[in-house]
Structure formats: C-alpha cells, structure tokens
Specification:
The protein is α+β, with helices and mostly antiparallel strands and 232 residues long. It has helices at 11-31, 65-71, 74-84, 124-127, 172-176, and strands at 2-5, 35-37, 40-47, 50-58, 88-98, 106-109, 128-134, 145-147, 186-187, 195-198, 204-206, 215-224. An 8-stranded antiparallel beta sheet has the order 1-10-7-12-5-4-3-2. The chain has a 4-stranded antiparallel beta sheet with strand order 6-11-8-9, with no helix packed on it.
Length: 232
C-alpha cells in the first residue's frame, strides 16, 4: 500500500524548498489565527498561554512559485505514470509542520475519508496516489508517519470520523474497532529528499515530534483526471 523513493530531490533542492516552506510558515504566524482565502487555508492553533502554532497550509503553491514547480516536477509525474497514467488532476497540495514538543498528533485514519462527495471521486483505490516529500529527517522521535501495511486491501473501513484526525492522538482502540492493531504498524523513516507514495485506503497516523528539530512534510495528491470531478 506504499512505496518510498530515496533521494528523489537532492540536498540543494531540499534546501531551497525548505526556504520556501519557511516563508509560508512565517505568513501563517503573521495571520495569528486560521485563515482562508479560496482554497488557500492556514490551520493555526491558538491558545492563551502560547504563541500561535502553524500546523498545516493547503494550496500554498497558488502564490509560492517554487512550491508550485515542485508539485509539477516531471520526476514525480514519471513515478505516477505507470500507476495512474499521464492525464492527471491534483486535489491535495499541503505543507505540514511539527514543532518540537507541540501539538502534532494525527489520529489513525484513511485519506479516503476526506474524498467527499463520494460521487466526485471514482475508482478511488486505483485512481489516486498521495505523495509526501520529506524536508527534514522523519524518525520515530520526530513524529514520523506510521503505516499499517496492506490495510489498503480492505478498502474503506468506515473508521470513526467524529473527530478531526489533525490534533487527535493515535488510539489502539480506533484500530481495534476495524480489526487492526498497532502491533502491525511500521514507522515511515525518511531522509530529506525522500518521497513516499501511498494509497488513499492505507491506514496511517503520526505522533508528537519529540526531537530537537522541526519536522516538515510537503504533501501532494494526484488522481486520474477522468475519475475525479475536483482538483486541477
């Protein structure tokens, strides 16, 4: 249900992407709260006793040229072609940040839960691929993603969607409810420049960043154009 392509982007490229991502992060801090303009959305957590925490931004590539170039990079397109072809749409463009020691949990879930309305996303199991580019080391300590291998083969498990995945801790009970266990999980260990690809039905989650560095992840999701009414 997943694959890893090592060192798809080199160190110099990742350094440049990191600068662009830091610029976007500074914009989120400047807003000081969650902010939406069209599809551009900053998810910013605010509390009385701490500075604003930028957790995620959707579609920063609309105004950040380098991030726009990365999402359209032909190296990614060549990886996708054998899986979903050449005529593609993109429906996900996000950056996720995990600040050391701060709220950064992501509950067990399937990405398919967000593909709504269902009628707009056809043949989801074979038409959609999620990708994530590591900007920093992704380790168990830094709150890397965790996968349940082969869980995608069971399709939509109807996992509990009553709470948002972002900001909710991993729970073995959520896995047990659909016949899975955390004992089956593996850590998605990535170095800067590595690209991960995974199925929208692969069960995954991530925990708190307990390292001494930021954990940044650039996520882009692609779909066979004829099977999707959304995206661009």
């Amino acid at each position: 249900g997943y694959a890893i392509v090592r060192a798809l982007f080199n160190a110099q490229e990742i350094g440049e992407i990191a600068v662009a991502i830091d610029q976007v992060h500074a914009e989120g801090l400047k807003h000081g709260r969650s902010f939406r303009h069209g599809n551009l959305l900053y998810n910013v957590a605010v509390s009385d006793d701490a500075d604003p925490l930028v957790r995620m931004v959707q579609w920063p590539s609309y105004h950040q040229p380098l991030l726009n170039r990365v999402r359209l990079d032909t190296r990614i397109a060549r990886l996708l072609e054998p899986i979903i072809g050449r005529d593609l749409k993109q429906i996900i463009n996000q950056v996720h940040w995990k600040v050391p020691g701060s709220l950064g949990d992501f509950a067990w879930h399937q990405d398919g839960r967000s593909r709504r309305p269902v009628s707009a996303y056809r043949n989801l199991a074979t038409s959609y691929v999620q990708t994530g580019l590591a900007i920093d080391p992704h380790t168990a300590e830094s709150g890397c993603m965790r996968f349940i291998p082969r869980s995608h083969l069971r399709g939509d498990l109807g996992m509990d969607c009553s709470k948002r995945a972002l900001g909710t801790a991993m729970s073995d009970a959520a896995l047990g409810a659909v016949g899975l266990s955390e004992d089956q999980a593996i850590d998605l260990m990535l170095e800067p420049g590595d690209l991960a690809l995974w199925s929208p039905y692969l069960v995954h989650a991530s925990g708190i960043n307990r390292s001494g560095h930021m954990r940044r992840f650039y996520i882009n999701g692609y779909v066979r154009a004829e099977d999707c009414d959304r995206g661009e």
